[in-house]
Design a protein that fits this description.
- The structure holds 2 protein chains of 2 kinds.
- By secondary structure, chain A is mainly α.
- Chain A is built from 7 helices and no strands.
- In chain A, α1 packs antiparallel against α2 and α1 packs parallel to α5.
- The longest helix of chain A is centred in the last third of the chain and has 29 residues.
- Chain B is mostly helical.
- Chain B contains 11 helices and no strands.
- Chain B starts with a helix and ends with a helix.
- Chains A and B meet through α1 and α4 of A and α7 and α11 of B.
C-alpha cells in the first residue's frame, strides 16, 4: 500500500469523523462540551487539509492546515472559553426540539445531502470527491443546530461549525480555495467571532439572559 | 458435509459451552481488579453452575409448562447462536442454516421466551423485568441489524462465514464505516448483556435491575441454564465483535490444521475483549432507565451513519 493510498484512506476516515462530530454537537447538552467538540472538529479539519496536501502534492494546503490549526484549535476555542466564563453560562443548553427527534431529523438531512452531492461528485475528479456529500451534510447539520437552539452561545458555535463544513467542502471539491481567499475567510471568522462576542454581552445586558427569543420583541413596553 | 467441517463445527460448539463461563468469570475478575478488589477468581461461574445443578429447582404453584420449558429454549438458542458465529474456523456446516439476520432473530426468540417465563408466574418483579427487557431489546435490535447490514454491504453477503472470510483475506484498510459500526456494536452489546451503563449484573437492587428481575423466580437447574445462557450470550457477542472487526488468524475452509493457530489467537483476543468490557463498565456509571432509549438511539444512529458513510465513500475510488 502506497503512502498516497494511506493518505486517501485517512481523508475518508477524517470525513467520517467530521460527520460524527457534527452529530455529537447536535446531541450535546452542555456548552463546555460543545466548545471541546468544536476544537476537535478544527483539529480534524487541519489534519484533513494536511493529508489532502500530501496526497495531491499541493504545498499551499499545508499552509491552510496550519492557519486552520492556529485559528480553530487555538484562538477561537480560547476566546469561546473566555466568553462563556465571563458570561457564566457553562452548563445548560435549551433545545427547542428534544434531542432524539433532532438526531432522527439529522439522519434525514444526511441522506438528503448525500443524494444532492452524488451528481456533483460524479463531475468532480479530485481524489476526495466522495467526501463532498459529508461536507454538505456537516453544513446542513450545523445549520439545524443553529435552528434548534434557543441560546445565543450554541448558535454562535453552530455558525462556526457551519464555516468548518464549508471549508471542508472547498478542500474536498477543489483542493482548497486560493490562498488570498482562504486567509481572508480565516480573518473574517476571527473578526466575526469578536463581534459576536461583543454582541453576546450586549444581548445579556439588554435582557438579562442569552435566550434569543427575547429578540423577537422589538418594541419597548 | 465434510468430515473436517463437522469436526470444526463440533469443536466450536464444545469450545463455546466450555469457555463461555470462563469468559464471564474473566470479565468479573478484571472488573474486581480495576475496582481494587481481589475478586472471586475466574473459575467462579463454574462453581456457581456446579452448585446450581446439584440443587432442586423449586417451582411456583401456578407455573405453567412454559416456565419449565423456557430455560431449555433459551439455552438452545444461545448454543445455536454460538454455533453459527465463526470463532475458530469458517468451515461451519451449520452456518448456511442461519445468516446474520437469523442470528438476530435467535437472540429475539430467547428474549421472548425468557420474558414470557418471567411473566408466567405473575409476580410483580417478573413482569417489571420482562417489560424492561423488551424495552431494551426492541431498541437494541435495529441497531444490531444495522451493524450487520454495514458489514454485509462491505462484503456483499449476509452470511457470517462469507463476511469473515472476505474480511480476513483482505489487505489492511482503514474503513471508517466499520469503525463506526464497531462502536455501535459495543454499545448494543453492553445493553443486551445487562452490563453497566444499562444494568448492573452484580446487584439485586430492585429499582434498577433488569436481567436479575427476569430470573428471580428460578432456582436449581433452571437458574443454572439461564446463567449459562447469559454467559453464552456474552461470549457470542464478543465473538461477533471479533469476527466482524478483528477476524485475523481464523482458520479458513481448506486448512483444518490452521485451527492450531486459530485457537490461541481466539483466546488472546477474547482476553483483550473481556478486559475492555470490564474497563468500560468501570469507567461508566449506571444510567437511569429512562435514559436507556437515548443511549440505544445513539447506537442506532452510529450504525446508520456507518452504513451511509459506506454507501457514499464506497462510491468513490477505493
Amino acid at each position: 500500500m502506497t503512502l498516497t493510498g494511506l493518505a486517501q484512506q485517512l481523508i475518508h476516515l477524517f470525513a467520517a469523523l467530521l460527520l460524527l462530530l457534527a452529530f455529537a454537537m447536535l446531541a450535546q447538552r452542555r456548552i463546555l462540551s460543545l466548545i471541546n467538540l468544536y476544537t476537535m472538529q478544527g483539529a480534524v479539519l487541519a489534519a484533513t487539509a494536511a493529508a489532502m496536501g500530501y496526497a495531491t502534492r499541493q504545498p499551499h494546503l499545508y499552509v491552510s492546515a496550519l492557519v486552520t490549526a492556529a485559528i480553530k484549535v487555538g484562538v477561537i476555542p480560547y476566546f469561546l472559553h473566555r466568553v462563556t466564563a465571563r458570561l457564566n453560562v457553562r452548563w445548560d443548553v435549551e433545545t427547542l426540539i428534544n434531542i432524539p427527534t433532532t438526531l432522527i431529523l439529522g439522519i434525514v438531512l444526511v441522506i438528503f445531502a448525500f443524494d444532492l452531492a452524488q451528481p456533483i461528485a460524479e463531475l468532480s475528479s479530485t481524489i476526495a470527491r466522495g467526501t463532498l456529500g459529508i461536507a454538505l451534510a456537516c453544513v446542513l447539520l450545523s445549520l439545524m443546530m443553529m435552528i434548534t437552539r434557543s441560546k445565543a452561545v450554541p448558535q454562535v458555535i453552530g455558525f462556526l461549525a457551519m464555516e468548518n463544513g464549508l471549508f471542508f467542502a472547498a478542500t474536498a471539491a477543489t483542493y482548497g480555495m486560493p490562498m488570498v481567499v482562504e486567509l481572508g475567510i480565516a480573518l473574517d471568522v476571527l473578526i466575526g467571532m469578536v463581534i459576536l462576542g461583543v454582541f453576546l454581552f450586549q444581548i445579556r445586558q439588554q435582557f438579562d439572559s442569552l435566550d434569543i427569543r427575547h429578540l423577537e420583541r422589538l418594541k419597548d413596553q | 458435509m465434510s468430515l473436517p467441517g463437522a469436526a470444526s463445527q463440533l469443536l466450536e460448539i464444545a469450545l463455546a459451552l466450555a469457555i463461555a463461563p470462563l469468559f464471564a468469570g474473566w470479565v468479573a475478575q478484571c472488573r474486581a481488579w480495576l475496582q481494587n478488589r481481589s475478586g472471586p477468581g475466574i473459575a467462579q461461574p463454574y462453581r456457581l453452575l456446579h452448585k446450581l445443578f446439584h440443587k432442586d429447582s423449586v417451582l411456583a404453584e401456578r407455573a405453567s409448562p412454559l416456565f419449565r420449558a423456557a430455560p431449555y429454549v433459551v439455552f438452545g438458542c444461545m448454543t445455536l447462536a454460538c454455533g453459527i458465529v465463526p470463532t475458530v474456523s469458517t468451515d461451519l456446516p451449520l452456518a448456511p442454516a442461519a445468516d446474520a439476520i437469523a442470528l438476530v432473530g435467535l437472540f429475539a426468540l430467547a428474549r421472548v421466551f425468557i420474558s414470557l417465563a418471567a411473566m408466567d408466574v405473575g409476580t410483580a418483579f417478573g413482569s417489571l423485568g420482562a417489560r424492561r427487557e423488551m424495552l431494551v431489546g426492541f431498541l437494541a435490535e435495529p441497531a444490531l441489524l444495522m451493524v450487520f447490514f454495514t458489514a454485509a454491504l462491505v462484503t456483499g453477503s449476509t452470511s457470517l462465514t462469507t463476511i469473515v472470510t472476505t474480511l480476513s483475506s483482505q489487505e489492511l484498510l482503514i474503513r471508517p464505516s466499520l469503525a463506526l459500526a464497531a462502536v455501535a456494536l459495543v454499545m448494543v452489546a453492553l445493553a443486551e448483556n445487562a452490563r453497566v451503563p444499562v444494568d448492573n449484573p452484580a446487584t439485586h437492587l430492585e429499582l434498577t435491575m433488569i436481567h436479575e428481575a427476569l430470573i428471580l423466580e428460578c432456582s436449581g437447574r433452571h437458574l443454572a441454564l439461564y446463567e449459562w445462557a447469559a454467559a453464552l450470550k456474552l461470549f457470542a457477542y464478543a465473538c461477533i465483535g471479533i469476527a466482524l472487526f478483528a477476524p485475523w488468524g481464523i482458520a479458513s475452509a481448506h486448512a483444518p490444521s490452521a485451527l492450531l493457530f486459530a485457537l490461541p489467537a481466539l483466546v488472546g483476543k477474547l482476553a483483550l475483549a473481556g478486559f475492555l468490557v470490564a474497563l468500560l463498565e468501570t469507567l461508566s456509571a449506571k444510567m437511569r432507565v429512562f435514559r436507556v432509549p437515548e443511549y440505544l438511539g445513539m447506537a442506532f444512529l452510529l450504525a446508520v451513519i456507518a452504513m451511509l458513510v459506506k454507501i457514499l465513500l464506497g462510491a468513490g475510488p477505493q
